[in-house]
Specification:
Blueprint (H helix, E strand, L loop, with lengths): L5 H4 L7 H6 L9 E5 L6 E7 L3 E2 L4 E2 L5 H4 L22 H6 L9 H4 L4 H4 L9 E2 L5 H5 L24
Parallel strand pairs: 2-5
Antiparallel strand pairs: 1-2, 3-4
Length: about 160
Amino acid sequence: MVDAPYWKTKTLEQMSPTEWESLCDGCGKCCVFTLEDADNGQLYRTDVACKLLDGKTGLCSDYANRKKHVPDCVKLTPKKVPKLDWLPTTCAYRLVANGEDLRWWHPLVSGDPKTVHVANASVRNKTRPQGRMKEAGLMKRIVQWPDPLDKPPKGYKRKRSKS
């Protein structure tokens, strides 16, 4: 009998540092600027990325030292995740915190880190760098990110794990 994957049996608090880090699907959506309407709390996503986000990979270019370069970068923790309403609804941390399963395109499910891009769930090649942009400029960059694919595209072959 095969044991259930750790994200189905452990809470975020119970995960090892390695398990915690591997929950990140690499979508990069937490690294793009999200604006909040002060009057009604509505969130608006932009296509403007943190200066450390590599637009070609959708990953942080200096993850280990990100807080040094971007002091207001939010370090996700099990206690913070449930309170961060700006995390995408597809974020693995948010899904697990809510007792939901990971999506088909998550690398832990698919066995392939590229499926997050195949599913159109990442910001790779869809952002512009922050540069010296001011908040007024951010308001002109509001976008509606497309929903990821619900199932693999026709012809997609899932990687098989080697046993």
